[in-house]
Write a structure and sequence with these properties.
The protein is of the alpha/beta class and 264 residues long. It folds into two domains: 52 residues, no CATH class; 201 residues, no CATH class. Helix content is 45%, strand content 14%. The chain contains 14 helices and six strands. Strands 1, 2, 3, 4, 5 and 6 form a six-stranded mixed β-sheet that branches. Helix 3 packs parallel to helix 12.
């Protein structure tokens, strides 16, 4: 399909509905959103063909973008962001938490007439387990994410328990088993975002990104606070790179370690 033919093709959907497809081609963010939507590509194959044959993507991996991305090669930078995402609660389920709560859990079982010996043995077998788990960092994923990784911290599911105990002690198990912090980081990097933020949102919805990391906000139409609230209303958290740099991670336990006498 030639560029001349593309001018006669009318867009039947979205913000450019009723307009020539060449108008759509001028909006790179919208092209990226459309290209990442499999349902639309199948439904409007003629539009997608025009995009493939005519659209020349602009260089989006600027030096600033690459600098932001390369920082995630260090574990500390990745953990700092996860720490912010968790509202600074990432490391709360540590050795101190276990030593405080596990004996209470065992005593509650005893008070209900349940023999805790099986649980105590399972606890002991987990002494020394890793509390922190950071997955491999993925860059430029097929979904269109700039950075992707998962972080978990804590000692969830360290024992198996019979189903009947859940029925007998719902509250007890619910309280004790909520002992892991988990974050799935699906990141969009933007050195600068201004009043074009709706196009950024469309791009992030296409890639299913849940975090926007920027260096600066240059918009004048809305305040930075409202900008953050707007993205939060769409399930997306916004952070600045400076926020990560300024974070000092607290000391944290790498492994579960406890004196087995706490169950005596």
């Amino acid at each position: 399909m030639t560029k001349e033919i593309s001018k006669t093709l009318i867009v039947p959907f979205g913000k450019y509905k009723g307009k020539p497809v060449e108008i759509l081609l001028q909006d790179q963010s919208y092209v990226n959103w459309f290209s990442g939507n499999d349902d639309l590509k199948q439904k409007y194959k003629d539009i997608y063909t025009v995009i493939i044959n005519n659209f020349q993507p602009q260089a989006i991996d600027t030096p600033e973008h690459n600098q932001m991305q390369i920082r995630f090669m260090t574990e500390a930078h990745s953990l700092k962001l996860a720490f912010l995402v968790s509202d600074k609660k990432l490391f709360q389920y540590n050795n101190k938490h276990f030593i405080e709560h596990a004996p209470k859990f065992i005593n509650d079982l005893k008070s209900m007439g349940i023999n805790p010996s099986e649980f105590i043995q399972q606890f002991k077998r987990k002494n020394g387990m890793k509390l922190l788990n950071l997955t491999k960092i993925d860059y430029e994923t097929k979904e269109g994410l700039d950075v992707k990784y998962d972080v978990s911290y804590g000692y969830s599911d360290i024992v198996s328990q019979p189903e009947y105990l859940f029925r007998r002690a719902d509250n007890l198990f619910e309280k004790f088993w909520e002992n892991k912090t988990y974050s799935s980081i699906k990141l969009e990097l933007k050195p600068s975002v201004g009043d074009d933020y709706p196009t950024v949102l469309r791009q992030m919805k296409a890639s299913k990104a849940n975090i926007l990391l920027i260096r600066e906000y240059t918009g004048v139409g809305v305040t930075f606070e409202d900008f953050i609230k707007f993205f939060a209303s769409q399930g997306i958290k916004v952070f600045t790179e400076e926020e990560i740099i300024q974070i000092t991670l607290p000391e944290y336990d790498e492994c579960l370690e406890f004196n087995e006498n706490i169950f005596s």
